Every structure is written in structure tokens, then in C-alpha cells.
């Protein structure tokens, strides 16, 4: 094996680099519980936030809008207009609602 | 036990990392494999039997091979970073040697690393890899022949 002596000694001059320290065993063990704790904390925060949230105002049921009912108002334009306005308020976004996004946008 | 493991890490860490790098060709993954092996020892999941260095080289090999099996076949193994430090601290020389080693077939490369940096005998290297002493010796010889040619070209 003498033919390789020079090559071997040249190779041995190179030194493998030192590896980083072994990760702290306790940290490794804690990794699971830490994630569990974080997940539990997030779940608790979401639960509290949901509990503190004001209950949404009860939604009034939409008045039944039938073609027959509108037909009955056909000969009374003001009443028909009022009925259509009432219906549109419950089905379309209200641009006049204070603090609403649509109201803010309508100012531009 | 913990002190023993840390002492083994101090004594053999460099050679074991070099071996893992030779198998994985990815220093970062190689370091993960090295840490995994030692954490298993520290946690008592693995018990060192026989000569500790031989056991550790075998454990590195098994863990590295499992790592390779777990990888997508489409993922190219890439040389990233220096794992062999040249005597004069030259990055170019380190990279030249690493890329020369990378051209060797894996079975030759691992014997070269076990012999040169792991300082194992052919018999010990053969035991780690699971081949006969003669096979380990011939793989080493072929590996060095190829390395000599490549390195001549590089120089």
C-alpha cells in the first residue's frame, strides 16, 4: 500500500470539522410539551375572545316577499316603493350605516 | 453514562460527522444524524455494545441510510458547506477534496473516510459496513486510485 502513502498522509492533513454541540437533551424533551403549551394557550385565548365577544343582535326574519303581495301594491306606487325600500334594506348593504365600510368608501 | 457519551462525542464527533457527510453529502443533514445517534444514546434508547467507536460508526451508517430512504428520490443530494478543513484553512482546497470524494462510488467513499479519518482498520471498516476485510481493502484501493487521478487533474 506504499503507493498511496503520500496521498494518505496528504488526506490526513485535512481535518473533519467539529460538529456543533449536541442539542440540550432537556430542551429536546421539552420541545413536545412546549408546543402543547403553546397550542393550549392559543386555544384558551380563542375561547376567551369568543366568550367576551358581544352576542350578535338577533336577526329579524325577512318579511315574506311574494309576487302576489307586490302585485297588490301595484296600483299604489308610494306603498310599492316603500315596500321595495324596506326589502332592499334587509337584503342589500346599508351605505348609510354609521361607521360602516361602505359609508367610509362613499366619501371618496 | 451521559459523561461517557459526551466524552465519546468529543473524541469521535469529527470522524463520525465526516462519515455521515460521506454518506449523505449534506453537512447539515449529517449533523442531524450525528445528533440523533447521540441523543438516542443519552436517552438510553440505544445501548452501546462492544467497542464504542465501531458501534457509533454503525449507528451513523444505519441512521444515515434511513434518512436517505426517507428522502424523496427526486431530491438531489447536494454538497453544501465544508466538512473537511484544509490544513491552511483554504476553502478552495476543502471544496476540491470534497468534490473529488463526491465522484467516488458511495461504497468506496465510505471506506476511504472510515480508514483515513475514522482511523479504522480494514477489518473494523468491513465490520461497520458489513463486508469482508478483503472487500473493504479493495474498495479502499480503488477509491484511492480514483482519488489520486482526480486530484492530480485538480492540482
Layout of helices and strands:
The complex is a heterodimer of chains A (108) and B (155).
Chain A: H1 5-13, E1 15-16, H2 25-52, H3 67-72, H4 77-91, H5 101-106
Chain B: H1 2-24, H2 27-42, H3 52-70, E1 84-85, H4 91-103, H5 106-116, H6 122-129, H7 133-154
Brief summary:
The complex is a heterodimer of chains A (108) and B (155). Chain A is an all-alpha fold and 108 residues long.
What does this structure look like?
By secondary structure, chain A is mainly α. Chain A is built from five helices and one strand, in the order αβαααα. Chain A has helices spanning 5-13, 25-52, 67-72, 77-91, 101-106; one strand at 15-16. Chain A is elongated and about 115 Å long. The termini of chain A are far apart. The model of chain A has no long low-confidence stretch (mean pLDDT 77). Chain B is globular. Chain B starts with a helix and ends with a helix. Chain B contains seven helices and one strand. Chain B is an all-alpha fold. Classes of the chains: A mainly alpha (108), B mainly alpha (155). The A-B interface holds A 1, 4, 7-8, 11-20, 22-23, 25, 28 and B 2, 6, 9, 13-18, 21, 27, 31, 34-35, 38-39, 42-43, 82-87, 93-94, 97, 112, 116-117, 141, 144, 147-148, 151.
